[in-house]
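in:
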């Protein structure tokens, strides 16, 4: 074979090799990938959690997602209150399997953090989401609906300290704190500032990390200036450390409802007890209903969905079953706002 013929053979081989490589293709995604489907728990779940059953397991099973090719798939199991429609979905666990479980106690705590009413029936939804890559859209299962009745338990919520001249500038004082009920660096609480010219900041147990505001304009910065309050009052404080924002609103609380002397037309003013850090009122009530609201307005009002002594924003009216003289206490200095109605 001459040299020229050999070169032709080599070139032809290279062309064939390149042609073969062009025919090689990677994984092909289905036009309509198949989402996973939950089989456990089944729709219609009706569960009541108790401290005695806190260690029991709620089991989950689902079909595998199908993307059209073999892939490493991870699954995220989520729950949320039905009214939220997964706007604030809570992840229960992640796995590469098609089954898993969570204890009643763990789920109970997550539901309470999401705003579920302890002792009340809460409509919930479950779903499972499959994930293979950041460049491939996740697949979401159809939702499974049910209802769960969680039990009340004291949860050790994350706190944010509020040091200031009203409490001796002590960043380790855990009596003057805000709470993050969802452990998401978003905090809320009510704190009484008794000084005529109160200054305060936010911290986490020490001055090593603290937040103030140089312009007192609702924005926060690490190590910035002290924040002024506008006068003595109990303030509703909200802090978002993700966005570095805060708000501080003076509040005066009152009682309103069909049981009160003025019905639903006007508040009955409560008095703040500085020593016990609670609002109180002693009042003659009729058989009927009451609620708590701030600043003679419905923008901030509290009721009880339980009823279990724990208050929720926009919660249900509190029923007074017998006319008489009552002493009513409102406690906003705790993570879960509470109240007490005592007949004298």
């Amino acid at each position: 074979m001459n040299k020229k013929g050999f070169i032709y053979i080599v070139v032809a081989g290279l062309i064939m090799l390149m042609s073969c490589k062009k025919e090689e293709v990677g994984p092909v995604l289905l036009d309509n990938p198949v989402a996973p489907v939950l089989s456990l728990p089944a729709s219609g779940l009706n569960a009541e959690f108790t401290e005695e059953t806190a260690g029991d397991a709620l089991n989950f099973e689902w079909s595998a997602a199908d993307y059209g090719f073999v892939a490493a798939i991870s699954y995220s199991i989520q729950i949320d209150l039905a009214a939220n429609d997964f706007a604030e979905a809570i992840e229960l666990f992640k796995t590469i399997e098609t089954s898993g479980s969570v204890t009643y106690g763990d789920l109970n705590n997550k539901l309470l953090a999401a705003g579920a009413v302890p002792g009340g029936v809460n409509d919930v939804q479950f779903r499972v989401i499959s994930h293979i890559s950041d460049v491939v859209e996740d697949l979401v299962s159809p939702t499974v609906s049910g209802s769960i009745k969680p039990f009340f338990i004291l949860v050790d919520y994350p706190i944010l300290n509020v040091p200031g001249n009203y409490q001796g500038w002590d960043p380790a004082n855990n009596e003057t704190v805000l709470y993050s009920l969802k452990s998401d660096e978003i905090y809320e609480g009510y704190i009484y500032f008794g000084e005529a010219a109160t200054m305060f900041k936010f911290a986490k147990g020490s001055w090593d990390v603290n937040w103030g505001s140089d312009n007192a304009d609702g924005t926060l910065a690490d190590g910035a200036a002290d924040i002024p309050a506008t006068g003595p009052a109990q303030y509703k404080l909200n802090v978002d450390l993700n966005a570095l924002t805060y708000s501080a609103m003076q509040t005066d609380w009152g009682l309103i409802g069909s049981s009160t002397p003025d019905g639903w037309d006007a508040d009955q003013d409560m008095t703040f007890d500085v020593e016990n850090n609670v609002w109180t009122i002693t009042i003659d009530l009729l058989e009927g209903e009451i609620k708590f609201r701030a600043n003679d307005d419905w923008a901030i009002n509290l009721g009880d969905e339980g009823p279990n002594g724990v208050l929720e924003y926009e919660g249900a009216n509190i029923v007074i079953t017998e006319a008489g003289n009552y002493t009513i206490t409102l406690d906003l200095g705790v993570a879960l706002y509470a109240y007490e109605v005592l007949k004298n």
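note: The longest helix spans residues 3-23.
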